[in-house]
Amino acid sequence: METVVLLSQQKPDDTIEIDLDLDELDATSAEMKATYQEIKDYVLKEFGLKVSNLYISQIKRKCGIEVGENYNLPKTENPKVPQCPKEKEDAIKAALKYFAMI
């Protein structure tokens, strides 16, 4: 059994022209985000420092950037969470500025 729906009254040879000014369009949120790997690569290349996803997440939270929920939670009640050193924090912030996230 086949169903055919008539979507428009135009013939296949008809065309529709639309003018878009791309300067007026805002960048999408996906275009403004850098991945954790891109941030790690930038920090390593520019500062020679290796940073973890945990440190990047901590700095993003400090800057008010939304981060996803952590599903890899520790099993102990009071886990020791290492805090990002100042040197790495500055490098991550520089990367976030480079990628126009802050």
TrEMBL record:
It comes from the Bacteria. This is 23S rRNA methyltransferase. It comes from [Ruminococcus] torques.
